[in-house]
Amino acid sequence: MEGDPLRSGARGAGLALEKGVTVEVCIGDDGVENYLNGVKGDYEVARRAAIEVARLAAYTGGFSIRQTVDVPIGGGLGTSGASALATVLATAALLGVKLSYTKLARIAHKVEVESGTGLGTVSGLVVGGACVVLEPGPPGSDRVDRIIVDQDHVVVVGFFGPIKKSSALRSASLADINRRGRLYVEALARDTTIENLLDFSKKFSLETGLATPNVRRAYAVLESKGFPHAGQAMVGDTVFTVLPSGEADSVATLLEEMGARAVTSRISWRPAVLLQA
Question: What's the pTM?
């Protein structure tokens, strides 16, 4: 709902990867010193997440935030949502904020919505694994279910380059996106398999026009080589599939030959966690 981030959210489906985002937060000088993979900058989501938690602790000092991101940024892989949640958890531990996991996750959801970087990523990260968000909203108000996947299966991602989400969405009808998204989430809820997640993602991207030329080309090449199940990371110039680990190298090679950065990761079946207080 516009204007209220804690009444906003999105239906959808996706996967939590073992490769992702790690955030370290320390007490610093005045202001927020922010690094992403060693590069200093003003990374809005992490900064806002730390400040939100600092307000709860009545802390007015500075922070040093160091983010390590092991997957491509700007490819629809949910790195902003992961950054928000990890920063909130780390800052709360640093400042001794005694809130429950769900309450902290709601702060991360609020930050992501207000930053305009996503609507439903945190819902999936709080659950982990392969999941479908059946009812949108912040953690605690949403409804999320899991999709069973063979433990031998891995995720292969082909990232062709960063794109602006706002530009991609301007080329499509938001009403049509919402209508088709709801239909495919409902279909996935009725027949909940990883193959359907991939197939519905592909159909959704093609029918809404969100599939980029690179993603369309990847669909065609993978199908021709016997890998018909694939989807698009929303909203990104990124294709992904889930398949037995023994087939991962073949798919990664195909994607690299098309010019993509290929990343292979196992699915993380645990929610985002605090590594060290």
Answer: 0.92
